[in-house]
Amino acid sequence: MIEQLDELYREVILDHFRRPTHSGELPGAQISVEGTNPLCGDALTFHLRLEDGKIQQVRFQGKGCAISQAAASMLAGQLEGKPLPESRRLIEAMKALMQGQGPDPAVDLGDLEALAGVRKFPVRIKCAALSWNVVEQGLTDYSQQHSGATGCKPQAPGPASLA
Ligand code: ZN
User: Fold this and answer.
1) Cα-based distances in Å from 88 to 123, 154, 161
2) pLDDT at 157
3) Residues bordering ligand 1, an ion, CB closer than 5 Å
4) What residue ranges define each of the domains in the chain, with the CATH number in brackets?
């Protein structure tokens, strides 16, 4: 289907697919999270190294179609150096974009904007969305693990404890 995309989108996507940025392993990553899109056979593992509340470094490993691998490369490039709340906003902006909304003017999507062309092919939206779904899962797991690791344990489970 990639030949059916507008030329501009296609070039950006193929460029990332052929020469992915940020692919490889990442020793010292606090977050390593993987996910698959069984509909297409795409698989991605993201490694994130956090420092000072920022995503300091991102690497990914994966296999699958051009859309899925290009999306991972683009996302990694946009996330690197971003504070965690901004990373979440970027992910939300990509979800909104794929649901048919216009690009959020407050969020710099960079090359990710090329994925807007994929919206015409609903089956392939999952290929693109795999990357940010995987990263979001990793960030959520991490914050859950670390919200309880501050050293201040409750003495007894209170009535408001849902854990
Ligand atoms: Zn795919």
Assistant:
1) 24, 29, 26
2) 56
3) 40, 42, 64-65, 68, 127
4) 2-145 (3.90.1010.10)
